[in-house]
Amino acid sequence: MRISLISAAIVAAFVGYGSTIALVLAAAAAVGADAGQTASWVLAVSLAKAVGSGWLSVWNRVPVVLAWSTPGAALIAATTGVTMPQAVGAFVMAGALIALTAAVRPLGRLVASIPDGVAAAMLAGVLLPFCLKGAGAAEAAPGLVLPMVAVFALVRLWNPALAVLAALAMGVALAFVTGAAILTDVPFPAPVPVFIWPEWNLGVLIGLGVPLYLVTMASQNLPGFAVMRAAGYEPPVTRALAVTGGISAASALFGAHTVNMAAITAAICMGDDVHPDRDQRWKVGVVYAGVWVALGLCSPAIMILLSALPPQVMGALVALALLGPLMGALAGAYAVVDTRFAATITLAVAASGVVVFGIGAAFWGLIAGLVIFGLERLKRG
Known about the structure:
The chain has 15 helices and 2 strands. It is mainly alpha-helical.
């Protein structure tokens, strides 16, 4: 076991955790999770990533690195009027759909038939409101947020993967130095999984479960497979979808949202500097799994630390973390000329936050974009 395997796994796990944990906490707050359910959520999703990464890496003898769905967390955080049991029902369905995609080929073809521009625009519409809040956070607390932005911009010039983590470190340091952070006198809670009975609400299943499945597939799994191919590995597509979908459905019963193939953090674990023998790099997935077990067990303490931070720091951190995904989504939305107007309609509706019949804006944005795309295609045909 080379030290480079260990260091790559640690860096990848800390980048993935530190850059988006604030978004996961925002998602938990949006669906009314209490402190115990939130701790269970983070523990369950961390263990799901650990089990899936270790299992798939050993099974396939290739480095498989999983992540939680960042755009999925943003989608959840943007929801309103959804209870935790209803959200769990949507999480279970999203995981089941991912697993079904591996087993039922027509379902995979149906998802693939959605124009890339429309799917990317739906994701952009989900992410945009969070990114816009960054400027408001800077206006409200410039002394805390502007140094975070400066550190983010400078670190990103040399290492984009570490930029958000550096901004988080700056925000935490400033908040405690200036006295803006307030630590409550709360004992260290034990990480305990909390079983949550799912509630099957049709509006939430359609408005949250279906978009969660789609953004996880389109913006996480497909790029994750592409990263593996770029590194010279043949991704185990069917096995990965079956395992991540099954684990996601099971861990959802303890509050976790979906896990999926990683892209940015996966790239950290697949380079030549990780191990000179590419056939030995699968071991990084096992080390990565161990790091995520440790992070899951330590999450309550980390959440106490983050909860002490001013809301402007957390809002800015979420905005900075989502700039990269937003950039990619916008580029995908407008890459093809023929779908640009449909993508614009999708983005506008998805970003509006409108809720109709209890179904959220992401779903209606997708439907609106598909209708416009279909009408334009009929006219051209």
